[in-house]
Fold each of these.
Amino acid sequence: MSTSEVNQTRGAAAAVNAGSLSDGNGDLAGPLPEWWASVERAFQTLLTWPDDWDSYGAAAPRREAVDAARVLLTVLVRRLDVVEPYPSATRNGGVFLEWRRNGHEIDVEIESLTDITFAYENMQTGEQVCGESKSADENTALLLGLLEQHFCQ
């Protein structure tokens, strides 16, 4: 991550209320997991996708959504030793982060820092948990708990 991207991430994080989407210190600097560079390349690639990238009229991924995904993921890795997610785009210009591990799947859709939804499924039992956040703090504890329980190293 370049210095300008770190500053951009810090600036976006400053917009988040002190609370669940904060590392507790208000500082998102520090070492990142080894897989971070791979995810950052995927984020940068998403920003090059044009409108209609899926040939069905999908909107190009928006910078706001990519930046929000970067901030959310930064907060998550500051709190948990989470495994690498698979980033992609949503049809409406958002970012999609997916984790699959040991029969568990969690999908997180990020439109902005104040518009995040997630769905968890235990593929063996069929258990499902969904959450929607219209503020920076809603459902973050539930998301963190699911990630910690099933997607940490």
Note: The chain has four helices and five strands.
Amino acid sequence: MHNIGNLEPILQGYFSVSEDKFEFSDKSCFVKGLSGSSLSFIVAAMHGSSGKPTMLVFNEKEEAAYAFSDISTLLGMDRVFFFPSSYKRSIQFNQILSEAIIQRTDVLNLLRQMGDGENQKTVIVTYSDALFEKIPLRNILKENILTISKGERISTDFITEVLFEYGFER
């Protein structure tokens, strides 16, 4: 059984932590019987202790958004990332949200560039609908990135041609 004794001094006075509320497997930890923001406090207290990134998967977008807000407040925005669905409500509605695509790309880039060190101490918050979306393979994503440096001169015809190749329309 894992030792959760280091949580008790931090959480003392807020709620009690008992071994029977935790279920551990090789790479996962399941917590039951919590309410409100108590999970966020536990994640913050345990943050970085494993040396690996932490992913929290919720059933609904709203649950994930509340947890993301709480954990970001406790740990800071530079350590907590939200991995949303690209679609407004569900894939069925087919309304893509550009800000969600940016958030997804940020998380994927973080995971792609992740090595040892500080990036390992990140928390990714998501929900089931977001995980069901397909993402491009790492090598395909790498091949299809157009990198433009500040001060570099590129013709608009070239950019237009590249965007058409990527499937964009006028």
Note: The two ends are 58 Å apart (CA to CA).
Amino acid sequence: MIRSHNEGIVAWAQTRQTNGLREAINGLVQAAERRARGYGRFDTIKTVSFLISRNLDLQANQPSRPATHLNFRRDMKFADFHVDQVIKAGPYRVSEEEIVAFAKLYDPQWFHTDPAASADGFHNGLIASGWHTCGIAMRLAVDSALTGSESYASPGLAYVKWLLPVRPADELSFKATILEVRRARGKPRLGILRWRWQLHNGKGAEVLDLEATSLFDLPPQHGPSGMS
């Protein structure tokens, strides 16, 4: 009897989700495929799936865990970026465990690694390493813009500012503003993107501000016309 339900038991132990939820989602996808029949774009199927799933309570079936970056991942190309464009992602909830684990590996100062000692310290509690905060911004930039793009490197940052400490349970929202998009002179395959990244906590206070440059490897036919 138990063996016949082994797969469902293991799935519940690992994800706290039943096979019923998975079957419901699978049914939605199949229904979306039927409704989108005749359209050649996979994006159409994804859109239809989203629209018809509005009555499915996914939140009630989720295990209890911190919220992370919740925006839909998008696949952007260099040609999709333009000056004054704003890209947002998040929120990303930062846990005490994550703060301590990162700091023990890369920035083992006591106010990042020792919650008890930090409680009586200058910051009145544990705070995240600034480099951890930058890493969170990097992850949100990748998820919201760079995944699937031609990005391959970065020459560095113009500046980085840690404006306020990041604390356990903070929920960070990412905002990127495009400052410059161009092709390098004499190197038509080299795309250059200069953008400003900002992170704000749940109270709306800015905790990180930096300016990054990303490089893109472009085939000659890619990118907006007229760039040089």
Note: The CA atoms of residues 35 and 61 lie 26 Å apart.
Amino acid sequence: MTMKKTCTRDVKFSFQRDVSLFIVVLCIVTSASFAQDNQNSASVSSGEFGAIDTRIGTVRNATAIFVGGRGGWIINQAVAIGIGGYALVNNVPARIPDTSGNHLLTMAYGGIDVEYNLLTTGSLRITFEELLGAGSISHEEIPYLNHRQYHDPFLVFEPGLSAEFKVTRILSVGAGVSHRVVFLLSSKLASNAELGSPSGFVSLNVGLY
């Protein structure tokens, strides 16, 4: 009975995480379409945007690569409000009591993303962004035929600074730095400090800025 409840809880969490990531991807795709429709407007004070990000930092003192994206609404080409989400895509060992070396850490997080336009000059735009949300870590045993999963939630705050160079009217590329701060995590797999890290990132952005 206990095993059944645990499996049900794990499936439910996995479904919620998949839905969250799907929403982020959907927001990016639809924002590209809306931005194209609005590009001929005589006066644009607001519009949609989307971005695909790759972030490189550390988790548990190991190199960690996160892939994800963000999307939302730009107001007066000065403030953008939306959502963002990221998932760990490379192998990072989890810290567990029976350290056998056959355990990998999985991690995903997302939340509300707010971006401020600090400076625009020509094709260059400097922005400050901050993400506030939640996430979860888990681990899987290898081989997968006999695996167990644990899901431990946490809250996250990630401010960042980026520079974006406009390639076309609706397309730009960016690069920047951020710092992920994790708190309220209670887990045997990792600590708050081990999940937090400075990161460097590159992005592909679509929208009317």
Note: The beta strands are 46-59, 62-75, 79-88, 103-121, 124-141, 152-166, 171-183, 197-207.
